[in-house]
Structures are given as C-alpha cells and as structure tokens.
Amino acid sequence: MAGRTRGAVVGLGVTPMGRIYGRRAVDFAADAIALALADAGLEKDDVDGLLINANLPNDMLPGAQMALGFRNLSLMSVMNAYGSTGGSMMQYACMAIAEGLATTVVLVYADAPLTPTRGAGQSYSGPHRFPLGGMAGLKAAYGDFGANLGYAMAAQRHMHLYGTTEDHLGIIAVGQRQWAQMSPWAQMKLPMTMADHHASRWIAEPLRLFDCCLVSNGAVAIVVTSAERARDLRQTPVHVLGYAQSAPGDNQDTAHHPGVATGAKQSGARALRMAGITLAEIGCCQLYDCYTYTVLVTLEDYGFCAKGEGGAFVADGKLGPGGALPTNTGGGQLSGFYMWSFTPMSEAIVQARGQGGARQVPNNDFILVSGNGGILNFHSTLVFSPHAGGG
Amino acid sequence: MHQVMHPGFAAEVPYNVCQVDLEEGVRVVANVVGLPNGALRIGMTLEAVFEPAGDGVRIPRFRSAVGEAR
C-alpha cells in the first residue's frame, strides 16, 4: 500500500514563457503567485510561508518578499541547490507544514535572462557570467565555461563506455517536441524529426542545439498546504507521497567516469521507499531535462533499466505520446520552458489533476518527478499522486 | 566546444576541452594540441607541453604521446 500523504499542492501559476521583455524576474514572480493563489482560491494573506528559488542571474533575493507584498510570513527563505532546488523546496514546505511552522507555503521560481539584445545563447554566458580572476582564470584559459561542456563530457563518456548513440539522444528530443505541441505553455511547437535533430548545430559535441534546454523569461508558483486543508479548496489536491534529495559529491574526480552516475540512484530509491511504491507502479515521469542526456542518465539511475542501457531503453519511443512510459509530457525544458525543477513539477501537477487535455496520460496514480543541478551533482525526487495514500 | 561562451574564444571555436588523468593521480582540465579535434579519443596517452597563454604566462596543455610514453 502506498505511504501517507506528506502535504498537498493546491495551487499552480504559470506565466507566459519565453521572449517576453521589459519585466524583471520579480515581476514575473508576482504574476505567477497571483495566478497560483487564484487557482487555489486563496488570498495573499492566507500565505504564511514563502520559499524563493535562487536563479543564475542572482536577482531573486530575500528582499523579494517585500516586493511580492507578503505581510504574514512565519517561514521565509531563498534556497539554492541549482536545478534540483524545487524538489527540495517542496520537501521543506511539507516538513514545515507538518511541524506547524506554516500552514500555506508558496514556492516560486522566476527568471528573466533574455533581453532584446541578449538571446538564449548569451543569456547564461559571456563576461558577466564568467569572471577571469583566480583559479577560475585557469579553467577559462582552456575555454572551460558553463554547463554545456560538462554535460557534453558526460554524454561523450556514456557513448564511449556503453555505445549510446546520437539517435538515442535524438529520440528523447523528438518525443518531447511531440508532447510540447499539446501544451499551452510550450515555447517550441514546430514539429521535429530525427533528421531535424541531427541537422541542428553543434553546441558542444556530442550535444546539438536540440539536445539543450531552452532559456525562458517567466515564472512558476506553487501553493502547498496540508492534505486536510486541501480538501476544502478549489482544486483536486495533488499529494506529495515521497520526497528525497541526494548530493553524492564530486562526480568529476579520478574515482568516477565524469557524469555517468548521479545522485538519482540514492534520491530515487529513498523517495519511492517513502511513497511505499515500486518503480513498476510509476505511470508517468517528469524528469529534469537540461539536456537529452540528463533524461537518459536519470532513467538509468532510477532503475528503469541497467546502467548503460538507457539508450536501448528509450530507443522505441516509449517516452513520447502513446509510449509505455510517458515522460516530460509538457515538452520539458527542451521544448516547453526552462524554469529549473519548476518545469517538471508544474507538469506533474497538471497530470496528477487530470487537466492535461490532449496530453493527459492514462495512468496518473503515481508520478515521478526529478530535479537536477550542477553538472549532475545535485538531485531531488518527488512522488506525486491524486490519491492521499494509506496509513 | 562549438558555442562561443566567452567573446575571448570567438576565433577559437570549435576547440577541444579535455579531462586528463595524470600519472601522479590528479585529474586536470586542459586542451589537447597538435591533433585535429576529430582524432581525440577517450583513453589516449598524452604528455604535457607548456604553452604561452598571453601576458608572459605559460600553461600546461597536452599532446599525443602514442609510442613514446612508458
């Protein structure tokens, strides 16, 4: 029998995503919070907890609580474990509610790195991101900048060790683009074939443009409360049955093949154990997909297949529409929008509520949600369900 | 690396970045020189060369040592 509910998601707010200029991250955050509270049927003064996700431009800071107009907070923090943060925020919100620190917690991620003169390729790169002093200067002398390179090395190593191919990465991108065409929030809706994937330009070999996530201006806010309080609110509650994190140390040191094994292994096992379910009961996945490779390695480390068999596992298109393991059903970060772990969390909420429309999955009993940060150095896992569970 | 992540590398792309395990037990980030990027292979044997990197500074890079090392 499934474990008991640890807390319930009762509100979701997603702003328009993409090239929306002239607004700061905190402006998007205010919009997303207003949408999430309206979705939940709550007022701002009902909120007594606020967890803000840090972002790469570092402009979501503690002072945002004033700009956002909260007056009644007994729980407030900015949290950062890079892309895995959202899952940890959900975990802490549930724990805080269970401990009586707060009754109703808003989680928010907001970012606005795109400007009319700074597109996706420049938004997280360039001199404003990479100062050249100190030891960072030595890495810089070799041209070692940013996440693209680290993930490319991991994917290259996986290909070398296990024979993973460009088609294995491509099928992930193609499937997610098919999902994106059914999501109202997705930025990328043009059809993509495997040939289109293979024709897209190199970013860092073996990763092509279509192996890499988008960059988005926008925000997502999520309202969490107790399962008991959730019963009286507007939306079908989405129960958090399991949560876990794992930060297993430096996977780039001499003891490791760089980026081939991740904290998903420990984090996933813990979250499933807490939820009282097995992997076989998972009906759909929302996996952090900063790169196609991230999806593949996460599936392996969660145990859907053995280490090294991720390519063969995804090759039949089982992650796409109509497949056996629907994954990233809003298009993910590759074709939907890039809001760190608020991308997979938001789609998991939609699916658990049964509000996916054309993209609704047939089995939403248990949904596995991952967050991933750094160069596969930080991981978070959630199990969502429309059911409150047993016990 | 094909993407220009810093304007200082606009004329360098595509360039290679590698992790190199030293015999002393340390792993370092560096570039391989003297080979086309397409000829690089994981596991190949390399040796250090100390190359000028501007402002009178020299930094270690690596070249193929096939048939020479050990």
Key features?
heterodimer, A: 391 residues, 9-stranded mixed β-sheet, two-stranded antiparallel sheet, 14 helices, 11 strands, 34% helix, B: 70 residues, mainly beta, 31% strand, globular
Low-pLDDT residue spans of chain A: none
Class of secondary structure makeup of chain A: alpha/beta
Residue stretches of chain B low in confidence (pLDDT < 50, at least 5 long) are: none
Provide a count of the helices of chain A.
14
Oligomeric category: heterodimer
**Order of helix and strand elements from N to C terminus of chain B:** EEEE
How much β-strand is present in the residues of chain B?
25-35%
Largest interface: A-B, 30 and 26 residues
- The helix-and-strand class of chain B reads mainly beta
Overall description:
The complex is a heterodimer of chains A (391) and B (70). Chain A has 391 residues and is α/β, with parallel strands linked by helices. Chain A is built from 14 helices and eleven strands. In chain A, the strands form two sheets. Chain A has a nine-stranded mixed β-sheet with strand order 3-2-4-7-1-8-11-10-9. The longest helix of chain A has 17 residues, at 146-162. Chain A is globular. Chain B is built from no helices and four strands. Chain B has a two-stranded antiparallel ribbon with strand order 1-2. Chain B has a two-stranded antiparallel ribbon with strand order 3-4. The model of chain B has no long low-confidence stretch (mean pLDDT 91). At the A-B interface, helix 5, helix 6 and strand 5 of A face strand 2 of B.
Give the topology, please.
The complex is a heterodimer of chains A (391) and B (70).
Chain A: E1 8-14, H1 25-40, E2 49-53, H2 64-67, E3 75-79, H3 85-98, E4 104-111, H4 120-123, H5 134-141, H6 146-162, H7 166-180, H8 194-199, E5 202-204, E6 207-208, E7 218-225, H9 227-230, E8 238-246, H10 264-275, E9 284-286, H11 292-302, H12 310-314, H13 332-336, H14 342-353, E10 367-373, E11 378-385
Parallel strand pairs in A: 2-3, 2-4, 9-10
Antiparallel strand pairs in A: 1-7, 1-8, 4-7, 5-6, 8-11, 10-11
Helix pairs in contact in A: 7-11, 10-11
Chain B: E1 18-21, E2 27-30, E3 46-52, E4 58-64
Antiparallel strand pairs in B: 1-2, 3-4
